[in-house]
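pinned: reference chain
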Amino acid sequence: MEGSNNWAMFRGSPKFLDALVDDFSEKLKSFLGEKVVSVFGVRDEFNKLQDKMKYIKSMLTDAKRMKMDDSVTRTWIDELIDVMHDADDIIDDFRSQFEKQSEDGASSWSLNQLASKLNPRTWYFAIKSCFMINDRIIELNKKIDEINKNKQTFSVGMNQIQSSKYSRQTSSIIDPDVVGQEIEHNTRKLIEIITRNHDRRKLCTIAIIGMGGIGKTTLARNVFHDPLIRNTFQERIWVCVSKEYSAIEVLQSIIKKIKPNTGEAQTISELLEQLAFKIKGKRFFLVLDDLWQYIVWTDLLKNPLQFAAIGLILLTTRDKAVASGVGAIYVHEVGTLSRRSGWELLCKKAYIEEEDDMLNLRDVGMNIVKRCDGLPLAIKVIGGLLATKNKDRREWEKVLQSKTWFSSEISEELHGALWISFEDLTQPLRNCFIYCSLFAEDFYMCREDLVRQWIAEGIIQQKENEFLEDTGEEYYNELIRRCLLQPRILEREDKFLEDKGDEYHNELIRRRPLHSKTFLQFEYFEHQSQMHDIVRTFAQCISRGDNHYGNPASLSLDYVQKLHRLSIAQEGDVAIIPGNKSDPLRLRALILYWSPPTVQDDIYHRIKNVRVLLLNGLGIKNIPDSIGDLKHLRMLDLDHTSISTLPNSICYLIRLQILHLQRCQSLQVLPQGITQLSNLRCLGLEDTPLVSVPTGICSLKFLNELKGFVVAGEQYSGDMHSGWLLDELKPLTQLRCLKLDNLQNAAIQSSILAGKCYLKTLQMSCSLPSGVSGDLPSEDNCKNIEEIFEKLEPPQCLEYLVILRFFGRQLPSWLGNLTYLTWLILVNFISCHHLPPLGQLQHLRCLRVTGARSVVTIGPEFMGTVISERSNMTPCFPKLELLRIDEMPNWEEWSIDRVPQKIFPSLLKIELENCPKLKAIPEQLKHISSLEELIISGVQGMREIENLTSHFKWVYIGNSSCEKLSNVPRVQHLNLVNCSALRCVENLDALQSLYLEDESVDHLPEWLPDFLNQHHNNDDIKLYFVCSMEVLKRCLLGGLDWPIIEQFSHIHVITNDNTAFMEYQKQPYSYNTNL
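pinned: its structure tokens
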């Protein structure tokens, strides 16, 4: 890193300004290439501005060698940063004037194209605007000259420091601070994989991935020093590669550890030959720690190491692409420490050894561990800080409540681990990463929302022949791949047993079925992520002064006026931003993700340069006419607000690209001006009860996302109507995502969707026609909706399809022909008696069927196969991973006996919920080797569950009528919830944890003693038990049921109301309760 505090002063750093200058210079170069710039007489002043950019660039070359705590340097840079944003606004205004005056202008057009659309009347206004813009450029150039007069005091060449790159080195020496069961479990798991695979192939690679400071190296050390590894391999070699590696040094290091004398070899080719010679015929175990580039393996080490007899390579990396690049057969992602293990580590680093100190400081310490969010490096750093303090609650509380978390006191080690990851990002990725710090702690960011905001801010670089949205998704995935964002895991895990009784904290995994509230919840979770707290703190530090998240009322006016992005925390009734109507703000993004609070009425007059305006929540009740003055606005998000009208001035937002009006329950009418927003890329109207919409949505030719398209049934005249005709979709050729409502009203002659070659996501929704009586529609209603859907055949490129409330008797024939479909969700198709044939959808990964209440039997036809000589050539559902069938009240039988080919070869999870009449699972499904998870809940007809031989990691049964669970020999984790009829549980040989919950019982399950007696390894089983207070007291030490439950290795018991608990561990002995 260049200087010890440069991470904390990133906005005022030369690199920050350097990136802005580069971006603006490219934009200026493109701008000056337009002939129309000369025609309107503004070229001279813009040329002067371009010269000044070159001068600033040369100054920055020297500035990068200056100390970052030089206040004069930072002031000079801060002033120029503000000027750069002003210059960007001027160019934006220049384009806006032409778009405003031209006919059908769009932001993707060149200035020359826009000028060609001017008529004689609008030429006058364009020329007048250009004179005004020219005056602004003159003033801007003068301002830059004034700032640069300070270059004498800037003292380039003085106070130079030597640039020192952050270069991490590690060794194989065991870390004395290793704590917790997680590291032991992960070590055993990796050693098992290594010993199982090391002799199956000549060279085998295994990867450990995770963000900086999470414990990858510690885990690798534990594996490296394990006696089993030591005895299995002749040579064990540890090499820290790091980002700034030398090929010669890496080779020399490996050779020296095989044989200390490296001889005369000096060049890479000589060292490669020597390595091949020394490793020939040996069995070796090589750790490549902190690997940043997979070419270290593929291009440097792989060939010479092939001369070994057996080679196992274990690498640690922050980048998932590195693991893929080396061809890792197994990738282990390191998670954070549990609260309990974090407390143990904090005690070690803070030298808390006396029991009295532990009891006194435990609750404060647990909160400190919570703030560190389980990151071992963060806990170590804070522990080291606490070691310098008195072992006193007040001292620890000061650390917990202070700004130490943001100070340089802990910055060097903690943020050094993150800085190297940050510096490796391209400038657009850095901007995207920093943007993510604008959201609340633990907030789950939706990929689509983030990408839209990045687009509106101009962060995403346009690629040829690629949508900005696709590029943005690549950026998002890259941040996840580099472990800077953490994807939301689709698990049913809730943490509890926290803040109980005497402030004792613990964590207990509690798995339950996921009851979807939205039909795309699985996909929605898959595309969500959050920022680790420590990473978020780092991002906030390097963007301090430019970005701010929190309550702005506590900030000074001077500070707020320098901010470019403000995200308001949810506090109070009104968000107070210092200053008044006459105090302009430089904000390019103003975000209020949930309200109350609402915003001040005068705020719209103060944010003239804003690009992103996101005001969500019921506290937002009206939008003033002055919204039309925000001529730079690219994104207006008013989701879930209480607005009842939108002003017609919205039509003046000619640069608007994204407009969200979803779930606005009081909004019924769209203003006619919306159809004039020719640059609109995304229009969100989903779940907003619109009754009047303007005609002409077909003019928004750049729309690529349209949610909540309300279908009208008849030809209409006039400007406003209750919905749109499907014909209005024809010109919208760029659609990537489309959600259609009220399809029962459609009048359709030919396919509207077939030619939309970019369409990835489609939701088709309808409702029973008005006047339909009874539960089921008439024959005519059914035929009509079947014809509509049959004609709406989507293109083959479709990947996500949701069909809601289809009431025909037969789903469209094209459903089984969508070659690239990966997600299919069918909800509430009440009249269908059979599921459609879907088994030959070659790319389908997730299938959910819910609410098919007329289905009684699911048979071989579901597999999409015809019994013939060729039917065994292709597996049924070859890539399906998740199958969920729920809310099927009449479903009795599931049979696939007559399907000859292989079925579900990739299936990971089956979920069966609220299907009360289903009696059994098909025999073929019980033995699928890939199957890992099974959920059976509310399936009362299934009284016996047995002979499941799949490699289950987890089985959940929530079935009050189930009497027997038998012969599930490979299940590792079993959850039994409200299984009061259960009498027999046996032959669960691989069981590691048992979760029990039943509010109706007043004793331990009757089957539990027999199960323990016939199970041979009770010491390996953990018990998690949720019960009544009466049952908990029976489980306490000395209680009636203690002799039974003490046979488990670990016990966690908690009452239904979460007020009382008991925890027990057999080895090493530990017992704790708040009773």
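why pinned: The chain has a mean pLDDT of 81. Residues 156 and 220 are 46 Å apart (CA to CA).
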